Structure formats: structure tokens, C-alpha cells
Amino acid sequence: MTGKQKSSGMKPWLVVFVALLDEIAVVALVILLIWVFDVDIPLPAIIAIGVVLGAFAFIVHRAIVPSLRRKQATGAEGMIGLSGEVTQELAPKGVVRVGGEYWQAKCIDDRVEVGEDVEITGIDRLVLEVKRKAV
To answer: What pTM value is reported for the model?
Structure first.
């Protein structure tokens, strides 16, 4: 396993831990107050509280980690990899239609004719960088 793979496996746990920091601080404060005021709590109650807190941490982990692994669907990064159709010849600049919207585009290939399909490879401000889609 490379360092990069190990890092990506640890990142979700770090995010969950940071998300749970405020809950951990509250639990620590409650434990401190119980110790300061010398409150006697029965063992079954301590076990029940531990199980509830563990379940909460598990649920938060299950909710957060999948969203971290999902491909970004909005913004400039979400457009990379989408397909579009050329509506104004790209030589090398022109117009493409992506998802019903018209965008200025710059082709990294030589020239693309009207009606051909292109794939978005990048975005520079409001100009899409495209290449001819492989057939």
C-alpha cells in the first residue's frame, strides 16, 4: 500500500473525529462535573450511555464518509468528464451545448465541426476546455 492510499483511507476517520469534537467536549465536561460533585452513577447507566454515544458516532460516520467519497457534482469540477455537442465550429474556439446550456469552448484538438460530440477536460474561468470525444 502506498502512502497516498494509506492517507486516503485515514482521511474519512479524521473528518468524522473532527465532526464529533464538540460532542466529545460535552461528554468530557459532563464527566468532569460528575467527578467534581462526586455523583454516584450505577454501572448499567454508564454502559447504556457508552452504547448510545458509540451508536451516535457510528451513525455520524456512516452519514459523512460516503459523501466524502462521492464525485463532486456541482461547480467547475463537476463538469469535467461531461459530454457536449458542438453548436459553433471549434477552430480552436467556439460554442458547445452541455446539459442544455451553451458555453464558450476552446478545443485542445485541431478542429471540431458542428454536431460532433466533445468531452470536457477542464475549465478556465467561463471557457470550457474540450477535446473530441473518442468513438
So the answer is: 0.49
